[in-house]
Amino acid sequence: MTAIRINFDKDLVLAGHFLLKHLEREERHRLATAARLSHHARGAMIFQKGDPGDSMMAVIRGRVKICCHSMDGKELVLSIINKGGLFGEIALLDGEPRTADAVALEETDLLVLDRSQLMPVLTARPDLAFRIISVLCQRLRQTSEHLEDTLFLEAPSRFARALKRLGDAFGKPGPEGLRLDIKLSQQQLGCLVGVSRESVNKLLNEWQRAGVIEMDAGYIVIRDTGALDDIADSCG
Amino acid sequence: MTAIRINFDKDLVLAGHFLLKHLEREERHRLATAARLSHHARGAMIFQKGDPGDSMMAVIRGRVKICCHSMDGKELVLSIINKGGLFGEIALLDGEPRTADAVALEETDLLVLDRSQLMPVLTARPDLAFRIISVLCQRLRQTSEHLEDTLFLEAPSRFARALKRLGDAFGKPGPEGLRLDIKLSQQQLGCLVGVSRESVNKLLNEWQRAGVIEMDAGYIVIRDTGALDDIADSCG
DNA sequence: CGCCGTTTGTGAGCCGCGCCACAGCGCGCT
DNA sequence: AGCGCGCTGTGGCGCGGCTCACAAACGGCG
């Protein structure tokens, strides 16, 4: 009974997923039964840099941060994956070890697809392969841009851009402005951009005083998108 | 007569290329006749960030630098493509504008493959698609690592790593050590890592005094790989 | 050969920002 | 209520590395 329900859920999830929705019902069902669900508590490590990895995950519920650490313990958050998102494709596709850690930011359910299940479908369906290729290209553009920002821009611009990106990914329009529907400590915000927690604090307060943003119950609300754009593009 | 010779050359080039050598002779020949050659003088711009791009290039002769510029004129060199290498795949694959500039570092010949020619082959031959996917994964790993280095490491470590990478790509073993078979100004070296020319100069001289490297006729020779590794991995 | 644009070598000064120290604060847990 | 922990707010110090400024070497070219 529960087994049936779970399978039903998996079918549904795949049918709604941007990558897999275009498959034949037949194929999708085969994938759905083969895929396994996995649950992770808030803060749990899903995989770790260097692990052998031959699976990728789709986020069904919750959020996952992709990050890595320096030798002296600093953290860099490469991206945060929302419900509906995908991560871990790279190791699946090229068979090399994982390049970063994946950590559940909240109670999280994942659908895990193994290389052995996915590869046949990928060779049989070139359109799916192209979709994967697009995802990779997008990631590449994204990390290149991150690199450029890091090398070219000062802390304020970098952080403003990070807020804009967060706005795109997690923003809910509200009466006061764009509300970021995710709770991140100043520490975490700093790790997104490679800036110290203290600097984040100062910028946040400065911008709040200037009316660019507002803090509400620990959530950030972007009040003046234009001003934020100006900071993001200022100088270089 | 010349036309025949050029076609012959193109066939040969494709047959020797790591991506395309596994195709049927038939298919490869079709690609070869469709592909066009293009020549670029030293310093010529091949394409520019933001250009629409639906082709990728294989380097037949010479070298190409992939770079981008900040608003205030700083340059970042993302990578240097050797003879036999490939670039411009991303725009071809996802149809978006080019993400960076491509500039010929020397007299350079390219083989240009258009999207319209390549796509049919890609859908027909899943193994080729996988090869492309591997290339993308590799690029992604490379830029991620570049980003990590930039955020986690100080200038000396970063620059040491850059020298090691250059050694892998352009190193010719010689009596004195690993000789970098490429001439780059200190300016260019700086752009590879995001460090000012002056800093590069100081590091270069310091390491030369320490016997880690040696300058010979404008070329860098790595004499003590171990010492360079130590600098690359020191602290964070 | 002499001129000029480019590359190299080096020192002084400055500044952004990381690191440290510490003080309030909220929140969960017992 | 009381304790402790992780988060926030702020100020000061120090340092890495960028900027600026200039001198010297090094081609390439008329």
From TrEMBL, chains A, B:
The keyword Nuclease does not apply. PROSITE patterns: CNMP_BINDING_2, CNMP_BINDING_3, HTH_CRP_2. GO terms for cellular component: cytosol. Residues 19-139 form the Cyclic nucleotide-binding domain. Residues 153-226 form the HTH crp-type domain. SUPFAM superfamilies: cAMP-binding domain-like, Winged helix' DNA-binding domain. InterPro entries: cNMP-bd_CS, cNMP-bd_dom, cNMP-bd_dom_sf, Env_Response_Regulators, HTH_CRP, RmlC-like_jellyroll, WH-like_DNA-bd_sf, WH_DNA-bd_sf. One of its GO terms (molecular function) is DNA-binding transcription factor activity. Keywords: DNA-binding, Transcription, Transcription regulation. PANTHER family: CRP FAMILY TRANSCRIPTIONAL REGULATORY PROTEIN, DNA-BINDING TRANSCRIPTIONAL DUAL REGULATOR CRP. This is Crp/Fnr family transcriptional regulator. It comes from Azospirillum palustre. The lineage of its organism: Bacteria, Pseudomonadati, Pseudomonadota, Alphaproteobacteria, Rhodospirillales.
